[in-house]
Fold this protein.
Amino acid sequence: MGIFRLDPETYRRHKDDVLRLCNSFQRIDRRGLSDAEIAVELGLPERVVTEIRCVAERDCYPLDEWEKAIEFKDQACREWAALALKRPDLKRGPDG
Amino acid sequence: MSELPPGATAALKSAALKAGAAVCGIADARAFDEHAPPRHRPADLLPGARSVVVVGGAQPRAGDWAATSRAVLETMGTTERIQSVGRRLAQLIESELGYYALFVPPGTASGDTPFLSLMLAAELAGVGSRSLAGPVLNSEHGFLYWSAVITTAPLEVDGREVEAACPAPACREMWEREATTPCLEVCPASRGGCLDGRLESGRAVRTFYDAPRCHTRVHTHWIGGFQKVLEEALNEPDKDKRKMLLYGDFFTRTLWAVTYSSTNVAQCFECMRVCPAAHGKKELH
Amino acid sequence: MARGPEGPAALAGVRRAPYAPDVATPAASATREESIKAVGLEAGARVVGIATVEAFRERVPEGYRPDDILPGARSVVVAGGDGPTAGAWRCPDHRVMEITGYDLRENVAVHAMCDHIERAYRHHAIQAPSLPVHGHAPPMSMMLAAELAGLGTRSFAAHIILNPEYGLLYYAALITTLPLAPDPPLDRPACPHPGCVAMYKRIGTTPCLRVCPACLSGTVKDGAIATSTYDRERCHSRAQTYGIGSFQKALHEIVNEDDPARRRTMIYSDFFTKSLEALGFYRDSIAQCFECMRVCPVGRKHRKLR
């Protein structure tokens, strides 16, 4: 039998709704739904919702986003240091 | 006039020892400039840095060295214990003295390059000196693990150790007799090991250290091993042979070591096991 | 000298936590709430607060409430601990804070308080499970616990709970069957800071919203948060650049790569190596992006040292 596996078609059909309803994209004025609550909303078994949510959380952005994260942090940290410590030399030049 | 209350440096050192360090020394942050490349100096990490506090400790116990099972030192490593001392000192400096303090992360910026050389810091703080085998040894306690805190506090600095632990008298005698020392003999680069060197007039005048080979020994079952097996498994077209790789002893052990990294991060001690200067000066039964 | 406020404070459990290895015995005349908090503060928490289990009911779905975890639970005690030192915040290399790690004193404090409650009051006490168990979802929200225990309020910046005095703290909690008098939630939000309100009036944004528009958006009205959104999945790629997520993403690409030579470069790449290291030393890599907090003025006075 192996471990629980999600059917890719089920995943494709419901991932956007699950992401929308859970805590992935948060608003301060309302909470995301639990897997059990989403299951009721979408008429799916809770285990399936959990699996869709876990895969979707990871699938939401491509690996490129991780590279952008590295660049973002490097730039933001250096710019802050340059400003707060009055050290313009800490900013990276165009050559890195 | 010092900006610190009287006795601040001594109090900090006392707190370090009370927290579990075996030794505590202070280096001048500027002293690194002569030895460390740009971007790996204290002021690169903490602008305005004036001192570097170095603590050493958490070393293997006498019983650990005497144990006949490799698994003791390989899987029950104690290096992380000194990290908590470093962190505590950083917090103490900020809360008690009101100066910035940055705990130097013991990991690496990328690859095998540390943010700041803890070995160099230990030397400059006067709590150890380099050995033929590589590790920095303290003349009293021998082989120690190190942690460092960079700070803007103008602490009183210590001078470098006057008398190096290495080479030990027994090693100088062995060199005269056999042109080798215990560490060079147990792990010789000429016979597939990591080390080579030369003594003259009782001092080391040349050392050689094969870091990539040493990595396969110190980190046998760790990130590198995981990557190697992963590559082999993915390259293996036969499903059954792939299973043997993934369920095999090496990969299983590697996964345990990765999960329990904090106690598995050092897995070879053979050069230190045979070193007469590495185990400290206390004798036990 | 950097110290928190001495003596009684307007905020629950806020006082300077001395960093002493010796734990002092609480005074015999203290109430049990004071006694428990004293144990937590002596063990290294920066702040300690208390909430009732009932307070969670209306805001938490079934299955994630304290009494779903410990039957008969009556109270939740929350400890907040320090994050990076002020010196670490000043480092121009973001990679230092990516792996600086923490001593997680708030967890030590929770354990000390659990032991104290079970020994002194003979009631059950457990550390509240806070690590994710299914995807990003933890069994219990430490953020909500901190809010309900009067230790902070939600902010624009990733909805991080900001303590009005110290700003960013890390939270752990215990659940106990011992009934305790709760601390009220704060009546004045820490966010937005007056400086941020002024900035919003001038240029329509705040420091955190401006530095990270990819993850955050929000509006201010009458000096308070009117709307606020947080893209947690994008934030994950920043706060956990190297970790479980990056390992899964990279592994997926690796196993799908047919060319052995290209596959090899991916397996041994800096990115995959650091992802594996982050798995091994998770405690050192818990949080890897601080940019919204770096520019946040709340608690900043405690980061101004010599």
User: Anything to note?
Assistant: Residues 105-121 of chain C form the longest helix (17 residues). Residues 1-23 of chain C have pLDDT under 50 and may be disordered. The radius of gyration of chain C is 21 Å.
